[in-house]
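Course assignment 3, question 2. Fill in each field.
Student: A.L.
Task: Predict the tertiary structure for the chain below.
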Amino acid sequence: GERHLLIGTLEHFSQQFRDDAYQDMDLDATTATVFGRFVTSEITNLRLLLISEEDILGQTQADQLNSFVSGVEHMQRAEAIFEIDNSRYFANIMVRNDEIDSQTSSGGDNDTLNRSERDYIALAGRQFGWGRAFVFGGTQDVRYESRTNPVLSERNSDENRYGVGAEYQIGRFSGDVDIFQFTQRFSSPAIPDIENAWVGSGRLNYAASDTVALVISADRRFHETNIPASGGIFEENVFLGGAWALASNLYLRMGPSYNRTKLQNTPVVIDRFELDVELAWQINSHVEMLATSNVFSQSPEDPALSSFDAQQAHTVVSIRLVL
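Answer field:
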């Protein structure tokens, strides 16, 4: 039968620029996770997840719109899922709590997005010969915790959501999709509620051969914002690319993508085109070398937002150790 499982990970990322003009963007980020899966009976299990994550800010349009040009976001997550699965039908209940705060590159606090997010989600579905399908629904409670600006508590909100999803594999095709609709109501009447908006993601993989795979993916995401009178930021992404196994321990991934970012309840729209290239070399079972290169060009639709007009190219070489 199945056994208990306990996994821990530790990752560290360091970003150092050779040009002193960008020294404010010399940042470090560390992420640690602990995951446990405990079998409670033949058809039930309990999954626990603890995450302490640091993410470098300033790399997305959402960060830039929220005035985070450079810095680190800290996220502490505690999550518990109780699941029932009899190999044909499955269901689970999830409780998750996130504590989020941010720090600028100068070391100061910018607490305009400091908040706690608590989710309660119920999910139920069925297994099929081609994969599985499910429905889900739940609530999210967001509470802001600014020490410098108590007015931000007006951004407190409650959200209801429901959606559908599936994971599939049919011949050479595989992938997943999930879409959900949500309504978010804010404490302040100055912030318009978000009614029946939708977000989701989908991915289609095609194994053209043993060494070549093609992928198409699209998603629509929602981000919190600190901009007055706006409920949040919607981000839409489309990617088309492929992966090639150049050798048994060497692979290449590349492809273009398009991103559109919209600030809700405003005319602000930013378009971004990117090309990503990734080369990975599995030196041995403990060491992997990774080289990634990214080129992008972004521009706002409104000429008044010319400060968001930007082009950039950068390459990162990293080494991953598995102990």
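Instructor remarks: The longest helix spans residues 61-65. The helical segments are 61-65.
Grade: pending
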